[in-house]
Specification:
Layout lengths: L3 H7 L5 H14 L2 H12 L6 H12 L4 H25 L10 H32 L8 H10 L7 H27 L6 H31 L20 H15 L1
Helix pairs in contact: 2-5, 2-8, 3-9, 5-6, 6-8, 7-9, 8-9
């Protein structure tokens, strides 16, 4: 038989911070981290044109039990974000006293967490929030991303730069968080395993950043990193791109004069 005192001690008030930190660490991997990877991968379909992007988004919006899935992602995301901000405000950086790399990583983890929270909130409001309010359809996501990301302020693509910096903060927070998760949950015990984990998660972070930044650059400039070419639709025609949308809008504007 189980010991009732053991169960009671598990949820003892004194253990609450420990349990909340464990839950914070876990939600950063599943579902928040998994959602970030999936979201970056889905958005990368934009590199193959609007038709492919719309198909990918439509596949998500037509998933069964989507509202339950959205709540299952949003609730852990909000917990992870707000509790993370609490930890960041309570933490005392010690990089001035210690020069060990993990101390710097700890500080960067807290800083990028706040930046990622602000960026993800901004991104969700701009598109998912507008969709929920009935002000935008999923078919309007692609043209809106093209227009917003390519917009400039005195020649500077501010929105695109915000996205690239936001992606960098989010990806670093995930990659470094995965290292912290493995360490705190006892997956990487030896120093060698911790070093290997740092290399593996670092490479994963770089790959995810390239994937996300490439998509942002495409929306902003209609170009991409070499070797990542547009796909073709089923009819064999070149995919409709941001440049095509801009030309069509310019042509309609010319006809309206």
């Amino acid at each position: 038989m189980s010991d009732p005192s053991a169960a009671k001690s598990l949820f003892d008030k004194s253990r609450r911070p420990f349990l909340l930190r464990k839950l914070h660490s876990l939600t950063g991997v599943v579902p928040v981290g998994a959602f970030l990877v999936f979201h970056l991968w889905t958005n990368a379909n934009a590199l193959q044109g609007q038709e492919r992007f719309d198909e990918a988004v439509s596949g998500i919006t037509h998933m069964p039990y989507l509202p339950i899935l959205e709540i299952g992602i949003l609730a852990p995301l909000l917990f992870h974000a707000f509790y993370g901000v609490k930890l960041a405000l309570e933490s005392k950086p010690n990089v001035g006293a210690y020069t060990y790399s993990r101390n710097w990583m700890y500080t960067l983890q807290r800083t990028t967490g706040i930046l990622a929270f602000a960026f993800i909130g901004f991104h969700l409001w701009e598109y998912w929030g507008q969709k929920m309010l009935g002000k935008m359809t999923t078919e309007q996501f692609y043209p809106a991303l093209c227009a917003n990301m390519s917009s400039t302020v005195k020649g500077v693509p501010v929105v695109a730069l915000v996205y690239i910096l936001g992606i960098a903060a989010s990806v670093f927070h995930l990659a470094n968080g995965l290292w912290g998760f493995c360490f705190s949950w006892g997956v990487t015990v030896s120093k060698r395993s911790q070093q290997m984990a740092a290399v593996v998660f670092g490479l994963i972070g770089i790959a995810l950043f390239i994937l996300g930044a490439n998509t942002a650059i495409y929306f902003a400039t209609d170009s991409m990193f070499p070797g990542m070419l547009f796909g073709e639709n089923d009819g064999g025609n070149v995919a409709r791109t941001c440049q095509d949308i801009a030309r069509a809008a310019a042509a309609q504007g010319g006809l309206g004069r």
